[in-house]
Amino acid sequence: MKRSLLIVTLLCLAALAALTWAGRDWSLFHIRDVTGRSDLGWVSCYNCHLVRLEKMPWAKPRPHHDAPAGLVVSPDGTRLYVALDDRDELAVVETGSRKITQRIKVSGNPTCLVLDPKGERLFVTCRGEDRLAVVDTKALKEVGSIEVGLLPAGLAYCETTAGPRLVVANSGSDDLSVLSVSPLAEMARPVAGREPYAVATVRGGELAVVSCRLASVKNLEAVAATEVTVVNPALGRVVARETLDSAHLSEGVAFVPSRSWVLTPLVKVRNLVPITQVAKGWVMSSGFAVSDLRGTLVQMPLDEANDYFADPSAIVSDPVGQRAYIASGGSDTVSVVDLDRLSAWLRKADAHDRREAIYDLTLSPEYVLARIPTARNPRQLALSPDGKTLFIAEHLADSVLAVDTSTLQPLGRVPLGDGGLNDPIRRGERVFTQAAHTFQREFSCRSCHPDAHVDGLAYDFDGDGIGDNLLDNRSLQGVAGTGPFKWNGKNPSLQIQCGPRFARVLMRTDPIPPKDLDDLVAFIEAQPPARTVCKSRLGKALTETQERGRQTFFATQRPDGTPIPRERQCHTCHRPPLFSNRLPSDIASNGPYDSTNFFDTPHLLGVASTAPYLHDGRAKTLEELWTVYQTNDMHGVSSYMNKHQLNELIEYLKTL
Ligand code: HEC
Ligand code: HEC
Ligand code: HEC
User: Fold this and answer.
1) Given the CA of residue 45, which atom of ligand 1 is nearest to it?
2) d(CA 460, CA 467)
3) What is the signed CA dihedral for 60, 512, 447, 482, rounded to 10 degrees?
4) Alpha carbon distance 326, 165 (integer Å)
5) CA pair distance 457, 287, nearest whole angstrom
6) Residues with beta carbon inside 6 Å of ligand 3?
7) Predicted confidence (pLDDT) per residue in 521-531, tens digit
8) Would you state the pLDDT for residue 216?
9) Average pLDDT over residues 393-399
10) Ligand 2 centroid to residue 45 C-alpha, Å
11) pLDDT band at 509 (very low <50, low <70, confident <90, very high)
12) Is the pLDDT reported for residue 220 higher than 70?
């Protein structure tokens, strides 16, 4: 009995072994066959099979919060409107009692708010649905809606000789929608800089100024530079483009009528110097630009030598032009700038002083009057029309803080929600946006990854000299499940990527505590891929051009019938649905300072919005991947393509 059991067991083991050997053989053969690479060893079947986007952490339902995104006060000062983008709601607050009197539904992530001069119509950009909604403030009902460009952010109301106009910053399509108000119609769609974000009215509406959040790709090898786009709303035309040198993340803009100044907060970034300089305060600092719209432009620091005020996102100035307030979302502070003192400094400064001002961190006490502490992540600001009350949207605390501008003391808070501290994703967002983890609170994760996306810059992380081994930033939107991470594909998990590495290379201070790190990873994994297609086109069939591009992407032979080798077909490496097989590949893209020619095969979800491209960011556009940097058909076979075929391929890539 015992003996036969032993035999059966042995037989089973042998069978299993045989099966496994055969299995291993088959697997290896299969993997080498489908990749066309004989150098590959064992690769998990899950790299290429059973990947389903609906199963990704970001596709799961998640809790929503009462985060205030946009604010505006009624002309009579009695009402404050608050856009709750994550809730698809607007809250109406009575300013006297600071109580919410009503909440109304506005779908599509209501983000930014403006009122008409009488306060009868409220205009709302809805980022998630690419539209502008009109709300009647008496009935508190949505009474109109119009499609605008991709991911609308800021907007402004302009009284013009041709009638009232709205200027909407379409952050996803890098253009502006200029709308007439009645009838609600789009008049023009001028091109802005990269990610136009905030809009301010100049002289009632004669002009509008738009701050663009990211540096334009065109002059990347030199220094980063964002654009302030000046438009004439009556004509719907751009009349000037001002450049903010070595700046990025310009997310706010204000016009000071009494001085004719345009103020734009900015992050001064020195991405081309080795990141080891963080301890010398040379990587990022916060400031703001002062422009007179006649060509004079001065950048002033907001930071102090030993304390930084990271991620300055919003700016407002009071009606008399005496003060400006700047919210620093990364350091939970609103800085109060005395414009009289600033003006006095500017008057006595010569050209050299003005040029060097931004580098002199001893300067800010000359004009920064006070720093108002806030709850987590002040993101937007609004002043009452009399300038006596400042409202601060504490985005990740679900509250609005009211401050008395004469004493600079808090008057009280409008609680909107519970802060969401039971939600790891929300806690993770707090870690992500907080500068507390870097040396002298210089920057947060968000400073380089706004909206957990890219800032469009390449950084020198190695400290081995200027310009060597630049690393193009990578989006965290849709990054879950695409590991290993980094361009060299050496980090197996997000925990390792965001934990020790960040502490060692970037922060120059203590690592993020383990619990915070878990929350941080939960937040990153909850970010869906970037949307690069208008909401109204999502889920629709591809256009003919895009369809032809899709066929090129999946082609296994050239148009003349000659086969394309397995390892040169786009979809072998960029395997759907993530458009990555999660393996390092050699496409002959190594630069002079690279120690390897194998780079992580990037996923292509949302790729249209992540320029520049390749590990060192050398390709400014998708086209350049095959025109300027084409690698003798190592990066897919493209030599047979004519201009139209390449354009079609790119049109397809833009739909991913
Ligand atoms: C590097 C990517 C990759 C990996 C890793 C991989 N496969 Fe595949 N597999 C493919 C491709 C490509 C096909 C062709 C059909 C398709 O496109 O789905 C395929 C097809 C198959 C098929 C269908 C039969 C055939 O040969 O067409 C089976 C079964 C299969 N794979 C099993 C596995 C198993 C089991 C593993 C793990 C040992 C594995 N695969 C690992 C890419 C991969
Ligand atoms: C100074 C700018 C900067 C800051 C600050 C920054 N990152 Fe990054 N991040 C980058 C760059 C550049 C890369 C690409 C580096 C590489 O591949 O080696 C990157 C890559 C990543 C990746 C890998 C993505 C992928 O697809 O492989 C993750 C995850 C990430 N960052 C998370 C974070 C988190 C979390 C923080 C804050 C703790 C943070 N980053 C702060 C610039 C930055
Ligand atoms: C042998 C595998 C392989 C093939 C085949 C391949 N790619 Fe790639 N692709 C890569 C790798 C690896 C990179 C990153 C290289 C680098 O950063 O230096 C990349 C980068 C890209 C990028 C830039 C992504 C970014 O975020 O910078 C795009 C877009 C892209 N590929 C599309 C395509 C298309 C379209 C084809 C077919 C014409 C193709 N690839 C063929 C491996 C491949």
Assistant:
1) 37
2) 7
3) -40
4) 27
5) 19
6) 487, 553, 567-570, 572-574, 585, 587, 589, 599, 601-602, 604, 607, 610, 613-615, 622, 625, 635-636, 638, 649, 653
7) 999 999 999 99
8) 84
9) 98
10) 27
11) low
12) no
